[in-house]
Protein: LacI family DNA-binding transcriptional regulator
Amino acid sequence: MSEHGRNGPAVTMRDVAKAAGVSVATVSHVVNNKEGARIGDDARRRVQEAVVELGYRPNALAKTLSQGSSRFIGLVSDAIATTPFAGQIIRGAQDEAWKHGYVLLVVDADGNRAAEDDAIAMMLEHQVHGVLYSSWFHHEIVVPQALDHTDTVLVDCYAPGSGLPTVVPDEEQGGRTATEELLSAGHRRIAFVNTTTPSPAQVGRLAGYRAAIEAAGITFDHSLVIPAAPDQEGGYAATPEIVASGATAVFCHNDRVAMGLYDGLRDNGLRVPDDIAVMGFDNQDVIAAHLRPPLSTVALPHYELGAVAVRVLIGLEPVPAGGVRPVACPLIRRDSVHTLEASAAEPS
Structure:
């Protein structure tokens, strides 16, 4: 194995050995600080001087392979590298890995299982410390069999029965936080536009909404839970039912639904937040921060998902019983929620 010298050409251990008048094995022992190697002081000094003179740098990959350990962490994903807000998972994992002396090797397989298997095989050959297996949205996955051969942490996805530690957003806490923000602004009749797509988000956010409503002493009203497609069209289509419900505030399953609701309310002559408050979920900056008024929302903690997953993988953070480590979804306050006049709030 070799590295480039100061002037460009590759400098090998053989070059260093020749200059120092020792064997290649002696050079290897010196540059890798081989414990127990019997090397005389003079030989060690000559090797060290030759290393400096020739500008030799040990190949980090060769060093980790020879030692049977690695400072590499693999990250295999389906599409997060090409998804604007979910790409923060990579950034969080990369920053945390670097902080602890590891380098992140990232492969975005884009859903191609053959490419995914090849990537995992390559990572195993390079003796990665472990692999983070991530998805761009929270859902159930099938774990590739190749991951049976290395420590693995699932990120933003889960696999029942796999026994693998799992780092996911706390969907229920996020739904509760969003609803509590509307309650704290004085709203008592709060609608929830929920997705029609089965998912942990569908179940968890509804559970959080209901828990917050009931904790406030308000009877849960099924008619205020309005199903809709999880996109702008879904939010727009739900508008007539929301207007008819008499709700003074709406918690939307995601920011795209909220964007559609903005359009629908505007077409009905209603203003946000003067006539109705709107809360989103996800904190997609390209949407939430640029609506008029800017959308209050709950963020999916993608950066922290990546960072926590690295800490779990390298043993710096324990995983609770059950193997699931939830990560809190923070509230992002903007201008789509304001305090309701007391006279306008429905008694609890």
Observations:
- DSSP finds 13 helices and 14 strands in the chain.
- The first strand starts at residue 2 and ends at 4.
